[in-house]
Amino acid sequence: MIHTLSAVIHQEGDLYVAQCPEIGTVSQGTTVEEAVSNLKEATELYLEEFPMPKVARTFMTTFEAVHG
User: Fold this and answer.
1) How far apart are CA 25 and CA 37, in angstroms?
2) Does residue 2 lie in a domain region?
3) Residue 55, pLDDT above cutoff 70
4) What are the pLDDT digits (tens) for 1-38?
5) Could you tell me if residue 36 is inside a domain?
6) Per the domain annotation, does 62 fall within a domain?
7) How many CA atoms lie within 13 A of 47 on its CB side?
8) Which domain holds residue 25?
9) Residue 6, Cα to own-chain centre: how many angstroms?
10) Which residues pair with 28 in a beta bridge?
11) What is the DSSP string of 4-64?
């Protein structure tokens, strides 16, 4: 089964950290592409042990927060 999942990426020092919010898996790499590839591998391994429940697809949006 193929799932379309999200990857949220941010930079920490020299590494890019990629997180899949739907599953909770996280990985990293020295490039965005490597981080996403590593996240894909980690997520596929996770899903072998813990299959995704049948739920509606989640979605992501943005919002603004005022501070200071």
Assistant:
1) 12
2) no
3) no
4) 888 899 999 999 999 999 999 899 999 999 999 999 99
5) yes
6) no
7) 16
8) 8-49
9) 5
10) 17
11) ----EEEEETTEEEEE-TTT--EEEESSHHHHHHHHHHHHHHHHHHSPPP--PPP------
